[in-house]
């Protein structure tokens, strides 16, 4: 039995008629860029996330880039980001004109903490980007308080964490993307809420900043041929918005299935000494865009699983501060040690909602068998 890392065809089969109807609706309208479908998705997402503002953009990368551009960086301005995350976080900082400063993460949750952020803070720090990696939120209450003390803007990278939430300071749940001035979401097809191509959304509490983002996505102005700033073309396709509007009502159901799969893995691997399963911070609701274990002899285990036709992934094999394109920043091996260790021993297992018990058992048995458990 083959177990792929991800199977999007299974999801499509369950909603094919509604998806096809939505696409046909857009084709009939001949309105393919922005328009009512995008506006409706912005309203739907703002309601789902309990935020006052949502702006659709062309990709998750642009959802990071445009808010940074809207901050109008000055030479030497810095943004703190974790060294253990997808490249887009660092690329957006660089391309917006900021200097990326790489910080370490908590080895248990893979996320930044106030302590790791503060260790990287300087007098030039303008913003910080906590990444809700693999679907678990960073400690946003503590981070928000830290940022307010130091006059730092927080941009949540929630690309992998739509639907994630945590207990807020008042005991009420706070959604990913709902506790900072601005946040970025990705709708890349592999995300928990994935489009049929690229797409992204910028949300947040800072209406003025979100208004600047809305202008930047259409070449810097709300009115055609009138440009208040130099923007770019980052418009969300109506076809993608229509697909996402069909999928959104199913998101919580799919998230519950991912969480059940995670429980299955945790129970099946708990007594395997060589395997560290993901740790969920108290008060967090993890949505498991990835189920990432830490394991000895990672590459050997991955090869063993491949022989059994079990898919896996390595997110991420090289920390950002050691990427060749950032060599001029002067980072050296050993400066961000936790991130470096994670890159050598993380392995992501299949977690998609339609996986099923039989395939979950095959993954667990494959790992247990390798370690003789």
Summarize it.
The chain is of the alpha/beta class.
Task: Tell me the layout of helices and strands.
Layout: H1 8-29, H2 36-49, E1 53-57, H3 60-70, E2 78-82, H4 87-96, E3 99-103, H5 114-120, E4 125-128, H6 140-150, E5 153-157, E6 165-167, E7 173-175, E8 182-186, E9 200-204, H7 207-216, H8 238-247, H9 251-269, E10 275-276, E11 284-285, E12 291-295, H10 298-307, H11 337-345, E13 346-349, H12 357-371
Parallel strand pairs: 2-3, 2-4, 4-5, 5-8
Antiparallel strand pairs: 1-9, 6-7, 6-11, 8-9, 10-12, 12-13
Order of helices and strands: HHEHEHEHEHEEEEEHHHEEEHHEH
CATH topology descriptor of the largest domain? Aspartate Aminotransferase, domain 2
What oligomeric state best describes the polypeptide chains here?
Answer: single chain
Kindly give the count of domains.
2
How would you describe the shape?
globular
How does this structure look, described?
There is one protein chain. The chain has two domains: 8-249, Aspartate Aminotransferase, domain 2, CATH 3.40.640; 250-371, Aspartate Aminotransferase, domain 1, CATH 3.90.1150.10. With 373 residues, it is an alpha/beta fold. The chain is globular and about 65 Å long. The chain has twelve helices and 13 strands. The model has no long low-confidence stretch (mean pLDDT 95). The chain starts with 7 loop residues before the first helix and ends with a helix. 40% of the residues lie in helices and 14% in strands.
């Amino acid at each position: 039995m083959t177990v792929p890392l991800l199977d999007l065809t299974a999801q499509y089969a369950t909603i094919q008629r509604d998806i096809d109807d939505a696409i046909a609706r857009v084709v009939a309208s001949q309105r393919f860029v922005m328009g009512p479908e995008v506006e409706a998705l912005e309203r739907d997402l703002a309601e789902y996330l309990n935020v006052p503002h949502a702006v659709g953009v062309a990709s998750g990368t642009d959802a990071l880039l445009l808010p940074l551009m809207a901050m109008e960086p000055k030479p030497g301005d810095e943004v703190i980001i974790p060294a253990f995350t997808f490249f887009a976080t660092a690329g957006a900082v660089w391309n917006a004109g900021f200097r990326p400063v790489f910080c370490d993460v908590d080895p248990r949750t893979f996320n930044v903490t106030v302590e790791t952020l503060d260790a990287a803070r300087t007098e030039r720090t303008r913003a910080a980007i906590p990444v809700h990696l693999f679907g678990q939120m960073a400690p946003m209450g503590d981070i928000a308080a830290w940022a307010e003390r130091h006059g730092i803007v927080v941009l949540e990278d929630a690309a992998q964490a739509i639907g994630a939430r945590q207990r807020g300071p008042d005991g009420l749940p706070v959604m990913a993307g709902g506790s900072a001035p601005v946040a970025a979401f990705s709708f890349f097809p592999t995300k928990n809420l994935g489009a049929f191509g690229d797409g992204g959304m910028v949300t947040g509490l800072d209406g003025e900043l979100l208004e600047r983002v809305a202008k930047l996505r259409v070449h810097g102005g709300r009115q055609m041929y009138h440009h208040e700033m130099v923007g770019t073309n980052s418009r969300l396709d109506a076809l993608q918005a229509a697909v996402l509007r069909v999928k959104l009502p199913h998101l919580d159901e799919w998230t519950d299935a991912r969480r059940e799969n995670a429980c299955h893995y945790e129970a099946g691997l708990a007594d395997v000494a060589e395997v560290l399963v993901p740790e969920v911070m108290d008060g967090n609701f993890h949505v498991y865009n990835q189920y990432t274990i830490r394991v000895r002899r990672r590459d050997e285990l991955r090869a063993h699983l491949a022989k059994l036709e079990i898919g896996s992934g390595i997110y991420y094999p090289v920390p950002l501060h050691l990427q060749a394109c950032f060599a001029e920043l002067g980072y050296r091996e050993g400066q961000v040690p936790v991130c470096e260790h994670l890159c050598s021993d993380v392995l992501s297992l299949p977690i998609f909602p339609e996986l099923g018990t039989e395939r979950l058992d095959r993954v667990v048995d494959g790992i247990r068998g390798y370690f003789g458990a």
